[in-house]
Amino acid sequence: MRQIRTMNLAWRVATFVVIAALGLLYVKWLPYYDRAFVAAADHSIGKSILMGEAASAPAASIEAALGYALAYGKAIWKAMVLGLLLGSAVQALLPADWVARLLGGRHFGSALAGGVLALPGMMCTCCAAPVVAGLRRAQASAGAAIAFWLGNSVLNPATLIFIGFVLGWRWAALRLVLGVPLVFGLGYLANRMTSAREVAQSEAMLNALAGEAQQPSFRRWLAILGRMTLRLVPEYVILVLLLGAARAWLFPTIGPDVDNHIGWIIAFAVAGMLFVIPTAGEAPIIQAMLSLGMGVGPAGALLMTLPPISLPSMAMLARSFPPRVLAMVVAGVVLSGVAGGLLAVGLRF
Q1: 142-186 pLDDT, tens per residue?
Q2: How far does Cα 205 stand from its chain's mean position?
Q3: DSSP labels for 259-325?
């Protein structure tokens, strides 16, 4: 019996590793490898998904909503499918006590581990959200999950390379210098905010998961995948449509009037935090806005706030974190955007 359980565990872990490795190779690693050469040669990775070559986003309408949703969906659907597969596989295939030992601690080490594990993923905030939900269900600590969530986009090695070739290496350095404390600092704070009651609930859930793990893994995996898809995808699609329609309200006509005043920096920090983009989408967005004469202050704010979170990803994870933790993340991201804008102005980017 012990030999059968050991073989079953080995099959489950091997299946997860194969899905993660092949999925990331196909969806992320190979495409980004090719795109890096394009960025180096052309100093561009495409048009701004926000407004194309125009000076403003299209007026709010059904057409604007559908147009953005289709363009965004085309860019991220493969990563979203992979995120759902991995988020459900974390719960069904990996032993819960493994996840808890690596990512379940309420100290800085678990946040560090979560952020480091995010580096190969290179997912946008919404595609990482199902994996984060799966990690939380498998009893990863709030800090580890937050660091994993933010680290996927903020510390994405491919995006840093794209930013360097498209915007300049000082922009990539700014992202890295502010991104490291954002990812690991907010992860540490999230762990510090975990109450004794939540720790006890986590331990009770871990014991319950040990019993669930005795169920047939493949059947349980399909059940979890189905539940996650039905719960996360509909609200995600609705919010992407709404944000696509609201582009003109979040981002007014771009030009020299959008200067380095602190009011613009704060406004763009908040707008960037709410809006949703595909991986590395901030590089062509900022490139287009700078070419239209926008100040470097608002650009620095967008550099730090467009990637890490969005209204759809926060909605997808509303059940995975206490409201106070999500509020702390929102505040931290906006403050990092303001800091990015002020540093871009002060350093005369």
Answers
A1: 999 999 999 999 999 999 999 999 999 999 999 999 999 999 999
A2: 26
A3: -S-HHHHHHHHHHHHH----TTTHHHHHHHHHHTT--HHHHHHHHHHTTT--HHHHHHTTTTS-HHH
Residues 6+ apart with CB under 8 A from 40: 165
Type of residue at 282? E
Task: Report how far apart, in Å, the C-alpha atoms of 235 and of each of 79, 155, 181, 325, 344 are.
Answer: 17, 27, 31, 21, 35
User: What is the Cβ-side half-sphere exposure of residue 192, based on CA atoms within 13 angstroms?
Assistant: 8
pTM exceeding 0.85: yes
Give the single-character DSSP code of 46. Answer: S
User: Do residues 138 and 100 make contact, with C-beta atoms less than 8 angstroms apart?
Assistant: yes
Q: What are 77's two structure tokens?
A: 């659907």
CB 131 within 8 A of CB 23: no
From 161, 125, 152, 155, select the one nearest 33 (Cα to Cα).
161
Question: Tokens for 63?
Answer: 């057409």
How far apart, in Å, are the Cα atoms of 169 and each of 124, 294, 312? 21, 19, 30
Question: What 8-state DSSP symbol labels residue 113?
Answer: H
The number of C-alpha atoms within 13 Å of 37 and in the hemisphere containing its C-beta is: 4
